[in-house]
């Protein structure tokens, strides 16, 4: 893209102005305001109060003087995640990370329009183009290129019409998205409740799980670097699902196993019917049942491989380990907290009620039938969310690039299976 060229992924109205970002904003770094409200920049939400979200794992530093003060109308850029769309025009006063790029407005444009424009997919593509790094976790946007970013601006009255149109149109989509998300949450709660029945109601013998397992192991440490399409198939914690015992094959990687680890790699090689459970990090306690698709893969050091003995049906054990009662035993501790790491001993020492093999198989059939219905409904709702997300982005792009006349357009939601609730 030339120095004076607007983003080329769309065709812009010829009468819109074309000006650089530096003509709209000044880079400012104002620190030393520890008493102000903490703010964060989210890809999906823009600039929000940090306290309004419960999904931000970043810890606030003890020394709050290092955070930067921003006000309403400021353009905030997470320099390491701009390529994902983590930017926004703030409507709030507060402090943000010292690693963010903060720009004070020096313009008379409509800040709501600029927020929609600069957070659109059109500009996210540009942030990705301007970012540099050897891998995604280390990519940073180039500040000099960002300052020269060309911004397309319609007349002020049209900016306001576009912003008002998008405020109304996206709020309708967001309301429907929230409704569908709540239905998904209810379906997952229903699944968890159904798993309660995998453990028999009547009294049966409680046993130490390790006595009934042929193997409990994890992958050895120190294996080679990931090599993309080459190497040995490798099952990681990313291949586990929170609310399903079916493995996630999309994230399956490959790894080079050093010769000295060949014996260990044979021991940690997966067979159909094995149980895989996350033992570290955010996926601790998540369970998958191995099938033929992942047979002969190896597991990482963050995954425990469990091979049931003859007295245990593998599918029953996968469901049982996912059941709320067993999860509580696995992850809870005497101090009321939650473990973020399991040892192989924790799994061997787990005390579970063990019905007969024939009863296990009967329980599995009952749960399979119920879970299949829940899974089908969940898949429908997930498709609905995907349709709405696509529609929302398409609508934003069309509006901020002048492809629709917002004075006559009426925001329409998709109809049919894609959005019905």
What would you say about this model in short?
The protein is α+β, with helices and mostly antiparallel strands. It is 32% helix and 18% strand.
Structure in words:
With 421 residues, the protein is α+β, with helices and mostly antiparallel strands. It has 3 domains: 137 residues, Adenine-n6-DNA-methyltransferase TaqI, Chain A, domain 2, CATH 3.90.220; 115 residues; 148 residues, Adenine-n6-DNA-methyltransferase TaqI, Chain A, domain 2 (Alpha-Beta Complex), CATH 3.90.220. 32% of the residues lie in helices and 18% in strands. The protein is built from 9 helices and 21 strands. It has a 4-stranded antiparallel beta sheet with strand order 2-9-6-7. Strand 17 and strand 18 form a beta hairpin. Helix 1 packs across helix 4. The longest helix has 44 residues. It is elongated. The relative contact order is 0.12. The mean pLDDT is 87.
